[in-house]
Amino acid sequence: MTNTSATAFLSQVPERAFSTDSAVDILQFAAECLDGGSGVALATLIEIRGGSARALGAHMAIREDGRYCGFVSGGCIEAAVASEAVDAIAEGADRNVLFGEGSPFFDIVLPCGGGITIAIHVLRHSAPIRTVLDKLQGRIPAGLRYEPSTRALTAIETPKRAGWESASFVTVYRPKSRIFLSGRSIEVDTTARIAEAAGYDVYRHDNANLEPDASRIDADTAVALLHHDIDLEIPVLQAALGAEPFYLGALGSARTHARRMERLRDIGYSESDIARIKSPIGIFNRARDAQSLALSVLADLAAMRVARFG
């Protein structure tokens, strides 16, 4: 790994183009700028020493004029990374930069007390990024491989996790989290509003039509049944149990869930199938108002997604 001087002359002053930590937004910005004729670099968090505010594989995209988006830390070094990227674009050469613990930049200290390494790759073409974006648009997981020795970036099949594979660094991209909400209640209305504000893709199943759209349920979908009527739940539970959502939860007391399980047994579902249903739903049991229930459900499924996919 190589280091560069933090005091290098900068022809451009970095400025955040917009605030996002969405990989789709960051890659889209990079591809559009590159295809528009601008020089662009993709900065990636490739090493963590101690603590870090972001996970391995976190990105920034930086245009040659210093405009950037994304995060590789909690916001404390992004301008410095952008400055390094502007220099890298001007030189046409990739570089690695260390911050925090182990870094020569004594005046840049990470609040977490650890250290990180950022790989800055000067993009040559947008095809690998476009491939990832196309897959994510179709709700298909994707991956990128960066080979420092050849300065090559290639689209690959989805790796299990972000990190080093031999001499290459691989990054994982998953489709946007979707929440499949079933029910016609104030709890559903409130959960949908908060979920949308948090950036989830929200799909609401209208129980006037008892046939749920099972195609809306995939591995990046959480299914939350916020009903007060078991009869309305059953078609949705059948659709969810026939798919592989990363979360499946249903509203109700222990007595309600016992009745739910009995109905499913009568239909022919196994105990292992039924055990996939989280009930009571959420991270705490006694949510007596719509706002508390919505926060309980969303926190529960967010924790489950992190545990499943990192």
UniProtKB/TrEMBL annotation:
Domain XdhC Rossmann: 186-301
Coiled-coil ranges per UniProt: none
Pfam families, per the entry: XdhC_C, XdhC_CoxI
InterPro entries associated with the record: MoCofactor_Util/Proc (IPR052698), XdhC_CoxI (IPR003777), XdhC_Rossmann_dom (IPR027051)
Domain XdhC- CoxI: 34-95
Protein name: XdhC family protein
